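Thread: "does anyone have the structure for this chain?"

Original post by V.I.:
We have the sequence but no experimental structure in hand. Need at least a predicted one for the grant figures.
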Amino acid sequence: MKNIRHQLYGTIHQKAKALGLEDAMYRGFLFALTSKTSCKDLTQTELESVDDILSEKILEKGSHWTQGLLSYEECQKRLSDAELPLDVSQWSAGQMLYAAKVLA
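Reply from O.Q.:
Generated one for you, tokens below.
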């Protein structure tokens, strides 16, 4: 299990680098998907989902999908300005929908 996690860390970071994601943008991407900013904090399922999404984005690379992608700092600022807790586990269903609008 640990070996699979480490392989996923490596492939996720390689794919993010191939897509030209700078550190702040990469962490913002993780945060928008999982409310976490490091692969080490992700569950196995979350790691696999992030890996799948990055694989899809590599196929779409020509579509300039990173335009408009928020940095981690910008995600935090928008959530704070909207008075939403940074810990997603505390969000109600209504707050999740509102956060999706705030971060869009």
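V.I.: this helps a lot. The chain has five helices and no strands.
O.Q.: and Residues 2-103 form one domain.
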